[in-house]
Specification:
Chain lengths: 647, 317
């Protein structure tokens, strides 16, 4: 396996170094870079800063600042302008690095504005810092005068506090008395009895019962009237029936009388003997006549007529008896009807009277109930008022307590203020304006721009060399005719990946050694501060970026695309670091992502290894994070290879 | 060739890329020390067969047997196969020796063995004096030979040559064919594809003609030509040229003649007995007082079979 890896690496190196331009670039590129940058930034101070100045009002304060700037050796070159616009234009035209405008003094304060070109941010920060240093010195002088006036005013305040301390004590005493009074009042009000003697709902029950009874009587009255009416109807019907029957009887009697007369006429016509006793008695002496009579009577036709007549006469007699009985019955019915009418009248009268009495009682009960409810509502209002009064008394007590506490606090604060003010007496205006002196010192021994630029430069070289070399190796492999033979080789794919990583490491190592040696020998960079950490940081950085380059090489098919993507990625990683603009000025979300930027990690590792004597523990998480990102890339490579085998 | 000893058997192998079927039910056997030729137009599927054989493409259907056992791990078969393509697969900016050392190491050959092997193979392909030349400095023939040498580095039992003579001049082609026969004589079975069908006819024991991913003919070159062209054609020119009488005389001598055509003072006689026919013709013209001016026996070639099949084969969609 090792032989195969070495063979792959040797092949890659041979192929790269057979191109003289590549070999030259690998060796002389970093050499040129380090020499040019080293010479350019190996100084420690700023010089030839062109300052444009415009003052709305020339004051002593403005003259002082400008004269101080002009006497600052070769650092500042001040040029005054007559208008603010001209001053600002000088920055735009590149004649000045910064335009300083002094505003009119108002209410004792003066404003100074710096107009700068923010596209040159790093220069802007240095300029503003340098200008501020001078302006703040002058501002301190002015501040001392203002502070003196302030101190005098504070002494006056101290005397005023003494006078008011006694008044505060009196107010506190009065408040305590008021609190006691409120307590007494609250007790008295709480003791008031406001319970209700009568329950109005009981009266409502009685009224309800009366109303129900009235309804029952009315209902009963209706029922009785209905029954009377029904009885009267029945009596009328019966009476009419009887009268009709009597009329029929009379008609029958007339007809029977007529029938009897007709029978008698028939008997007469037939000479039938009479059977009447009177008739027979007439024949007592006349036997012959009697015999004849009897003979006629005993004649069949006469016998039939006679029987018929007798029957009819009997029926007539009976119907007359019935007619008489009917007349009696009708008379009795009339009598009963009259009595029913009387009864109804009496009953109605009695019922109406009872209902009227119940109505009157009900009205009285309702009136009583309403009065009782009104009384109870007033009692409830009184209760609410009492509760509100008690609440107000509580609030008043709380407010008074708070006031007493506040008064105590005010008194205490006044005491403290007095104590503080008494301490101010020992201060001088100068001590107030500038209570402590500031001096910025480097945490490392390094002071030159180059010292701080060197780790970033190293990280930059590592990033671009590793990404571009690795992607170029992979692309050259893919575009070579031998690629197919490599694919059908029994050697595992990781041999080729690892070969590319090792080759890139060797190339990067050559460049790093050149940069470190020149940096150490020509520009006094201390590369032995943390040698082990430096080597680990360099190796991890190279490996990560080499793997990134290999992924690009495998992802894209054209050499141009791969190179372009590699450069774009490098530039993005570079810009999302603190090298040009501090990451802290980025959007917080992007800044939090940028902290995982491999270039940032690499730069931090190298910065700490080259500038500080860092303990290893601080850098281990960075190394681990870089290693985790590298593992992620290895997995990506594996996934790409696996996916391609599938297709 | 040893027909009793099959090395590789391709059984009903099919392969598609997307919806396009490239190989369709391909079946053939490569025997020990056999040179097997694959003939077909561009895009017919020749290279796909070769790449499927080396495991570069997995087959969709069918199976590949090696020495009687089904191949399950392609890498086992890969170790037994050398592959030389029409695009030489080596690094242009490495020398012949560096290329061979690199690929030999990846094949897992020990250093001492590898040095010996490189020396031997450079001798076989006649590149001893070019061992330090870079790939890009080699001529076309040298490049092709270096590619073959690399393919033989790991002593494979099978050598696959994809268009080995393509782009070479006739002399170099002849050298390459001689090299192929030498390799076969060293006990290596060879599968070869070529557009130059005469070469395949010359060196191949068996050939397969493939159109649109399907074998349309498979067998020895002679059998295939016989199958599609059963008669040889005799071209005869005499003076004064009484061809009717000559043909009747030949027939009278019992020679079977399939067809006769006379045009441009020449007679063309199709027969399955070319040797007997020539003898009969010579006897006839001697007896008739005819003077022989030209006599050719035109045997049908694999190229003619290919042309015939190509015109008959259905076009790919």
């Amino acid at each position: 396996m090792l032989r195969e890896l070495l063979a792959a690496t040797k092949k890659n190196l041979l192929r790269l170094f057979r191109l003289r331009v590549s070999a030259g670039a690998i060796l002389f590129g970093p050499l040129l870079l380090i020499i040019v940058i080293g010479l350019a930034f190996s100084n420690t101070s700023l010089h030839d800063i062109k300052v444009g100045a415009y003052a709305q009002e020339r004051t002593e304060y403005v003259d002082n600042i400008l004269s101080k700037l002009e006497t600052k050796g070769s650092t500042f070159d001040v040029e005054e302008y007559t208008t603010e616009a001209a001053c600002i234009k000088s920055v735009k035209d590149g004649k000045s690095h910064i335009c300083t405008t002094f505003g009119k003094a108002q209410d004792g304060t003066s404003s100074v504005s710096f107009h700068v070109d923010y596209s040159r941010l790093s220069l802007v920060l240095i300029l503003i810092s340098a200008m501020n240093e001078h302006v703040s010195a002058e501002a301190s002088v002015i501040g001392a005068d203002i502070s003196k006036s302030l101190l005098d005013a504070m002494h006056g305040v101290s005397q005023y506090v003494d006078e008011n301390d006694v008044r505060l004590a009196d107010i506190t005493g009065d408040s305590a008395t008021m609190l006691a009074n409120i307590g007494e009042m609250r007790k008295d009000i709480a003791a008031l009895d406001m319970s209700s003697p009568v329950d109005p709902t009981a009266l409502d029950g009685v009224a309800g019962q009366a109303s129900a009874q009235r309804k029952a009587i009315a209902s009963q009255q209706k029922q009785v009237n209905a029954e009377i009416k029904s009885s009267k109807t029945q009596i009328s019907q019966t009476k009419a029936e009887l009268e009709r029957t009597a009329s029929d009887l009379e008609e029958s009697q007339v007809k029977m009388t007529q029938g009897i007369a007709q029978i008698k006429a028939s008997e007469t016509a037939l000479q039938c003997g009479s059977v009447d006793v009177e008739d027979l008695s007439a024949y007592l002496d006349d036997q012959a006549g009697l015999e004849q009579k009897l003979t006629t009577i005993s004649r069949p036709d006469c016998s039939v007529l006679y029987t018929m007549r007798l029957n009819m006469e009997s029926m007539l007699a009976q119907s007359q008896t019935i007619e008489q009985k009917l007349d009696v019955a009708i008379t009795q019915l009339d009598d009963a009807e009259d009595r029913l009418d009387n009864f109804q009248d009496d009953y109605d009268e009695g019922s109406d009277e009872a209902i009227d009495q119940i109505d009157a009682a009900e009205k009285q009960l309702s009136a009583m109930s309403a009065q009782l409810k009104e009384g109870n509502a007033k009692v409830e209002d009184l209760k609410t008022m009492r509760a509100s009064l008690l609440q107000q008394l509580d609030d008043a007590e709380r407010s008074l307590n708070a006031s007493v506490a506040t008064l105590g606090a005010v008194k205490e604060s006044l005491g403290e203020a007095k104590e503080s003010l008494s301490g101010v007496g020992s201060l001088t205006p100068e001590a107030i304006v500038k209570p402590f002196s500031t001096d910025i010192k480097s945490v490392t021994g390094a002071r030159r721009q180059f010292d701080f630029l060197f780790p970033s430069l190293l990280a930059l070289v590592i990033m671009f060399v590793s990404i571009l070399a690795a992607s170029t190796i992979v692309m050259k492999e893919k575009n070579s005719r031998a690629y197919f033979r490599n694919l059908i080789m029994p050697a595992p794919t990781f041999i080729f990946f690892t070969g590319a990583v090792i080759t890139t490491t060797i190339l990067a190592a050559i460049q790093i050694v050149v940069i470190l040696l020149i940096g150490s020998l020509a520009f006094d960079v201390n590369i032995m501060l943390n040698p082990l950490l430096l080597i680990a940081g360099l190796l991890f950085s190279v490996w990560f970026f080499a793997l990134l380059g290999i992924v690009f090489g495998f992802l894209f098919n054209s050499e141009e695309t791969t190179t372009l993507i590699s450069i774009i990625t490098g530039v993005i990683l570079f810009l999302f670091s603190s090298v040009i603009i501090p990451m802290e000025s980025m959007d917080p979300l992007l800044a939090s992502i940028a902290r995982f930027n491999p270039f940032v990690l690499a730069e931090l590792l190298l910065r700490n290894s080259l500038l500080f004597e860092s303990p290893g523990g601080f850098l281990t998480p960075l190394l681990l994070l870089l290693a985790e990102l590298a593992v992620l890339l290895v997995l990506t490579l594996w996934a790409i290879t696996f996916a391609r085998k599938k297709t | 060739m040893d027909p009793t000893k099959p090395i590789v058997v391709f059984e009903h192998v099919s392969k598609s890329f997307g919806n396009r079927r490239i190989l369709n039910d391909i079946t053939f056997t490569l025997h020990d020390k056999e040179i097997f030729g694959l003939i077909g137009p561009s895009g017919a599927g020749k290279t796909t067969i070769l790449r499927t054989l080396i495991g570069f493409y997995p087959s969709d259907f069918g199976r590949v047997m090696y020495e009687g056992k089904q191949v399950t791990d392609v890498s086992d078969l890969t170790r037994q196969i050398g592959f030389a393509t029409q695009d030489e697969c080596f690094y242009e900016d490495l020398s012949c020796e560096e290329n061979m050392k690199y690929f030999g190491t990846l094949y897992g050959i020990g250093k001492v063995d590898l040095d010996d092997r490189i020396k031997t193979l450079l001798g076989i392909v006649e590149l001893e004096n070019a061992r330090h030349l870079l790939g890009r400095q080699l001529s076309g023939g040298m490049r092709r030979r270096l590619d073959v040498a690399i393919a033989l580095l790991h002593s494979p039992k099978i050598l696959i040559l994809d268009e080995p003579t393509s782009g070479l001049d006739p002399v170099l082609r002849k050298h390459m064919l001689a090299l192929i026969e030498r390799i076969r004589d060293n006990g290596i079975s060879i599968i070869i594809t070529s557009h130059i069908l005469e070469e395949l006819e010359q060196v191949c024991d068996n050939v397969a003609i493939i159109f649109n991913g399907r074998f349309v003919a498979l067998g020895t070159p002679a059998d295939i030509t016989k199958q599609y062209f059963p008669y040889d054609e005799i071209h005869l020119v005499t003076y004064p040229g009484d061809y009717q009488r000559i043909v009747e005389s030949v027939r009278a001598q019992g020679v079977v003649i399939a067809a006769v055509s006379i045009e441009d003072h020449q007679v063309r006689i199709s027969t399955s007995e070319p040797e007997r026919a020539v003898y009969a013709i010579l006897r006839s013209i001697a007896g008739m007082g005819e003077h022989l001016i030209d006599l050719d026996i035109m045997k049908p070639t694999l190229g003619e079979v290919f042309e015939k099949l190509e015109t008959e084969a259905p076009r790919a969609p």
